[in-house]
Amino acid sequence: MDRRNMDGSVPRPGGSSRQKRNNNRKARVRELAIEPGRRILVTSDIHGNVPYFEGLLAKVGFSDRDELIIDGDFLEKGTESLRLLRLLMEMTERGNVHLICGNCDDWADMYLPDFPDEAFDYMLGYIQYRKWGLLWDLCLDQGIDPMRLTDFRPVKDRLRERYPEIWDFLGRVPHAIDAGRFVFAHAGMTPGKPLREHSPAELDRVDALLTLGRSYDRWLAVGHWPVVLYGSDTVCANPIIDRERKIISLDGGCSLKDDGQLNCLIIPDIESEDFSFTAYDPFPTATALEDQAGGERSWYIRWGDSEVRVLERGEEFSRCRHVRTGYEMEILTKYLFTEEEVTGCNDSTDYVLPVRAGDELRIIEETSRGVLAKKDGVSGWYFGKIRKTGPWEQRNYDYRGRQNRIG
Q: For residue 12, how many other CB atoms are within 10 A of its CB?
């Protein structure tokens, strides 16, 4: 039986022993003085997705006049971790690009003296299940077939010898950046606790921060927890800005969600709270030709709570009942994980978008019934006529950034 997390992944290397070790050491914290007048761009959770990252930089017009902060999880889950890492290593030499270590970026920890030996068994299972990620990429770069490995320990030593610049770089990436009025940490921060007294886990492994009742006396920008997971009946991937509690949550589900986007918070000046944001995804666009009233009732079946009972399996759509709530909806059959009656499924919604003729839609799925689309960051269904306006070539990019043919 596979030891998998709710998202189908193998548990992160080291398990509880790794967590305990992280709690016994202090996080790396960097102080950053940003000059007034410089625009600050903050993104997070790129997850090895180079096309999304490059698309976002082009869309936001990134230049040497900006400060770019990447708020953790630039590695794993996408297909180009090594390529993205090398790009970021080069970009940080410019002096205006700043990385933060997320829970998916701390691979250099395996060279620390107190790294638990049993973690290497988890690591081997992880890379053989995922079949992408930094360690997978490095093995292939060395001509090693990861699927033929039975022990990762000797490979670890070889990778240390061949890529010292990578491990030295990752080992220096801070867990938080203190920019005065703003703190940038991947997942959270403990209110009232000095930043340098935090452990790495207190900064990069805090799930669902917005549900914990925390508030701060200065702005905290985080990623880590996809913002869509804070919703129950609708799916919105836009950043959440909580001005009362001074929390900004950024993770738009890039490389994780079929309808994910890479978000970028725009702070016009270090002294300003006049925030805005932009987001990038590669989905083709269409213009709605008919009005559509929004749905009155909907549900969002998502990661961590995706078990459904298939009531009627069809070629394109299947009637399913959500096991926990009993809610019934039509789900794309290709989103079901197995052929069994009770199975997990990809994130699904039956939300009907409110649309006016002339609205722009970003098309996620084109079906015989209508389109699954995004409008202003919110995903749902549109059943009216459309006029295709963006580049509608016979290909698209899936949520991991890989180019695939349609159909």
A: 18
pLDDT given for residue 232 in this prediction? 83
Residues comprising the chain, all counted: 407
Which residues does the chain have with pLDDT short of 70?
1-23, 393-407
* Domains in the chain with CATH codes: 15-280 (3.60.21.10), 285-390 (no CATH)
Q: How far apart are CA 10 and CA 5, in angstroms?
A: 6
pLDDT of residue 399: 38
Q: Are 400 and 78 in contact (CB under 8 A)?
A: yes
Return all residues near 57 (Cβ < 8 A) that are at least 6 apart. Answer: none
Q: Which two tokens stand for residue 56?
A: 């976002």
Query: 69 in the Ramachandran plot: left (φ > 0), alpha (ψ -120 to 50) or beta?
Result: beta
Could you read off the pLDDT of 320-354 as tens digits, one per residue? Answer: 999 999 999 999 999 999 999 999 999 999 999 99
- Residues near 139 by Cβ (< 8 Å), separated by ≥ 6? 127, 145, 146, 149, 155, 159
Please list, in sequence order, all residues whose beta carbon lies within 8 angstroms of the beta carbon of residue 137, skipping any fewer than 6 positions away. 80, 81, 82, 83
